[in-house]
Amino acid sequence: MNQNQLKTTIIFLLLVTLSTGCTWTDRSGQLRPGRGKRFRATDSCYTCKKAMSIYGYQPLRALQILDSACIVGNMTPVRADMFRVRIYSYTQMPDQVDSLLGGPKGVRFDSARAMGERLLCHDSLMADPERHLDVLEVLAYTARQQNDTMKWMRRSNEYVDLCRQLGADHETSALRTTAEIGAALHSLGRHQQGMAKIDSVISLLDASLHREENRGRFNELDALIIALKRKIVVLGSHGQYAETLPLARHIIELLDEYEQHPEAYHDSTQREPDNDQKRGDYIRFYRIQAQSFITAAYASLGEQGNMVEAFERIERGVHDATAREHVARYNALQQQMVAERQQSKAHRSTLVAISLGVFALLFLVIAIVVIVKNRAIHRRNRLLAHRISEAINYKKMYIEEKRAQPLTEAPDINALSD
């Protein structure tokens, strides 16, 4: 290999080393960013929509997405904390979050509560009432799950006041939370005041939902179902089971109507199920709860035949819901395994790229050392050849000078003898 070929090889290896540090390709051949690439916010697929679409059964993955979105500048830390609070409180896999936070069961609620209260003091939330509402909603739910009735009622009142300040578009949300306040008042022993609040909410929502011009408001349908549930629970705690039966049947009637004419209730609100599967889950969930209320009422009233019939309906609904739950968990685990395999493949690809880079760099160093040594040897050889050439030239010059000198006469021997 001559010197020019060696230089070409070194340049090629240097380019290979730089490229392996910048990108790698997946199995499909799609180019993926590597360690040498500088990310931009527009390059990231980690968005809040992606995180919030999977947090129910993959909370850890959702949290990773939020962290990545913050790192690449696709989301502010404050907005990421808002979504973390919701993930901690509402996920269907609470054990995973509790384990991640390194605490006992339910520690996620403590973390959500502390984080949410910090967010309420942040300037960006004070300037954005919609985000303020989101945090208050989660804090009220968290307090209810922790059986902190005073905090539950306080956050709910703050939520209602802010809804009323924002205008008529938030009136349904205010009414839904007012029913929660009525349940909280009942928990504090103020039964009549709490029941009055719940009754007023049911009356307003029922009348609004059945007005011809307001027909098809899912948000009001959902708020009415919640208020009916709260009243059933309050009545049941006082043993007034006979009064719960018409309320539970009313819930089932509302769900049947929604199931038969879902397009008539479409309003694109946040709580509305956005596909057929979620709509079916929503209907099934509240229908099972209503059947449970009916079964409990018949059992308390001693009507065994009606109780068994209602219980069989619950069994069928629970069986369907359990099957869907298992499918959802299986899909979540399968997606998690796929993600782990992709991460493992990316890790192996990175190790291979690093190894190739190290070997290429080592070969590059060796090649440079060889070039340096060859140049030194070549320089010494040229110097030695130059000296030999000078010595030969000097010898030739000396011989020629000797030949050029005239011959001297021979001495007189006789003269020498005298």
Describe what this molecule looks like in 3D.
With 418 residues, the chain is mostly helical. Helices cover 77% and strands 1% of the residues. Strands 1-2 form a two-stranded antiparallel sheet. A hairpin with a 5-residue loop joins strand 1 and strand 2. The radius of gyration is 42 Å and the shape is rod-shaped. The two termini are 79 Å apart. About 9% of the residues have low confidence.
Question: Topology, please?
Answer:
Layout: H1 3-20, E1 23-25, E2 31-33, H2 48-54, H3 59-71, H4 77-90, H5 94-101, H6 107-120, H7 123-126, H8 129-145, H9 149-166, H10 171-187, H11 191-209, H12 218-237, H13 241-260, H14 276-301, H15 304-404, H16 413-417
Antiparallel strand pairs: 1-2
Question: Structural class, from helix and strand content?
Answer: mainly alpha
Give the rounded overall mean pLDDT: 79
Q: How many DSSP H or I helices?
A: 16
Shape: rod-shaped
Evaluate the radius of gyration: 42 Å
Strand composition percent:
under 5%
- The termini sit apart by 79 Å
Tell me about the largest β-sheet: 2 strands, antiparallel
The helix content, as a percent range, equals: over 70%
Poorly predicted spans: 11-46
Order of helices and strands: HEEHHHHHHHHHHHHHHH
How many runs of DSSP E, i.e. beta strands? 2
**Side-by-side strand order of the widest sheet:** 1-2
* Oligomeric category: single chain
